[in-house]
Design a protein that fits this description.
With about 260 residues, the protein is mainly alpha-helical. It has one domain. Helix content is about 80%, strand content about 0%. Helix 5 packs parallel to helix 9 and helix 7 runs parallel beside helix 9.
Amino acid sequence: MDIATIVGILVGIGVLFFGIMDAKGGGEFINAGSFAVTIGGALCATLISLPMRRVKAAVSVAKKVFLTKVAAPHELIKTLVGFAEIARRDGILALEEASKNLEDDFLVKGLQLAVDGADPELISDIMTTELENIEERHRDGRKIFEAMGKYAPAFGMIGTLIGLVALLKNLSNPESIGPAMAIALITTLYGAVCANLIFLPVADKLELRSKEEMFLKEIIIQGVMSIQSGDNPRIVEQKLEIFLEPRIRMEKEAAKTAA
């Protein structure tokens, strides 16, 4: 579970609540009609701009923001080096049995290609194409929240214009101007909050998750190709450690030296 996302949303709501209380606000910040115009309008615009299948996938895509746990690159490298040791010791065919309990389908597919005797170039082509398809699906999921973040402020402004039209019709009653103006502006507030606290941050987090996953899959491709080529496990490790940050590489070297 991604604690940062949950903490960010909860603290953001808390900050808004504090601001409302500090402004001596209360029930006037809650208006069902304004909320319906903002969220309902943004959702309808999203339905118009994107296929239904993508919009239906919004819930499953959103789960990745809160529940996806990205593996540590050095742990993945350790796993790949372990497979290289098995292939070196027992032969490449032994990887089929060794990979049965893996949860990463992408890694399993790569190892299966190696077991089947595919050339490294063919492995690279197949897995790179798969990588591009995964990245495209990630972009499709991200577009849902980017669209909601784009349309919510616009419909907030539309709601404000609706409120202003209603206000101008009642200028003969000065006492109603203040409350009517407050209701009109609430819609803009809803649009800005929903876009900047939920929709756009979720889209940004999904983009980050996608980059992290693509990075790990690049390591898998290089690792599988190196295993297929029959490289020594130590060479495999050295090839893959290039992907790590210099700080992590230095820590690993220091640990090896100490050992």
